[in-house]
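dumping this here so i dont lose it
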């Protein structure tokens, strides 16, 4: 048995997983974001009925550096820059692993979802922002600082890109021109405002796109062009044969299908089967991915 937790900025989801990675006895509690003692107390109460020999594997909305154990997260300030793995191991009296939730999403899809049977899987997050995780032979590829798969960051959009309609916007990471600035749901809204001067929710924008609205079509065409360029590079570099998508935009099946066609037209490998596909386990990806983690 393994205990699993998915730590978000609003809630902590908790469950036990058996040898088949089936989830049971699920619990949910609000995340104490500003009080470290309260944060530890909630996890302790959730795990208290289980023997100390049962480990706890956690997916978190942030990164945990493997070499130091320190966690960095914007949404849960009480654990930011805290050696969370070591702290929880001591305070809970059980072995604890902490991994980024995008890596857990990718791992869940590689082992039980759309990527099952593929040696190299690149999980894509298209939610509020852009993220990802690379899985090779069932193991997440994680750098010393806890990072990996962050295809949404880097100065991908040039300062003089205005001619093709793509704004070079400042990113929260400190750079300008990252795909994260236009890639997620808020990003596509930002892109549409830049191109049309109109504010509209992503869901309504995509409905307009499907109905043939010219303004929405222009925005989505620009979005598909730049996002597919980034993902084609990821596919060529990693050799991933499947790219499951999670996050809110994963539910936009037509958009993901259009992105898949665009990406496959730009990669070196000829592939008839879909490459970019909606994930199969979006609701449980944090917990299921955490259950597959290994030291």
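and the seq i came up w/
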């Amino acid at each position: 048995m393994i205990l699993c937790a998915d730590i978000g900025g609003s809630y902590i989801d908790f469950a036990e997983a058996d040898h088949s990675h089936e989830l049971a006895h699920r619990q949910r509690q609000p995340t104490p974001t500003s009080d470290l003692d309260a944060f530890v107390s909630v996890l302790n109460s959730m795990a208290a009925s289980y023997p100390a020999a049962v480990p706890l594997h956690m997916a978190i909305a942030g990164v945990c550096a493997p070499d130091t154990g320190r966690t960095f997260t914007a949404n849960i300030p009480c654990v930011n820059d805290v050696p969370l793995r070591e702290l929880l191991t001591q305070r809970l009296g059980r072995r604890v692993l902490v991994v980024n939730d995008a890596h857990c999403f990718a791992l869940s899809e590689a082992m039980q979802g759309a990527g099952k049977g593929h040696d190299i899987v690149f999980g894509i997050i298209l939610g509020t922002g852009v993220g990802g995780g690379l899985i090779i032979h069932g193991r997440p590829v994680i750098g010393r600082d806890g990072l990996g798969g962050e295809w949404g960051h880097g100065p991908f959009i040039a300062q003089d890109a205005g001619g093709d309609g793509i704004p070079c916007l400042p990113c929260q990471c400190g750079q300008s021109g990252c795909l994260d600035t236009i890639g997620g749901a808020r990003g596509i809204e930002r892109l549409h405002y830049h191109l049309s001067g109109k504010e509209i929710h992503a869901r309504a924008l995509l409905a307009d796109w499907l109905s043939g609205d010219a303004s929405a079509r222009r925005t989505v065409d620009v979005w598909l062009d730049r996002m597919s360029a980034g993902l084609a590079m990821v596919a060529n570099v990693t050799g991933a044969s499947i790219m499951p998508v999670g996050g809110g935009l994963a539910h936009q099946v037509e958009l993901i299908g259009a992105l898949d066609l665009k990406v496959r037209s730009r990669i070196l490998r000829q592939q008839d089967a879909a490459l970019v596909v909606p994930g199969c386990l979006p609701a449980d990806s944090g917990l299921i991915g955490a259950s597959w983690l290994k030291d």
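The mean pLDDT is 94.
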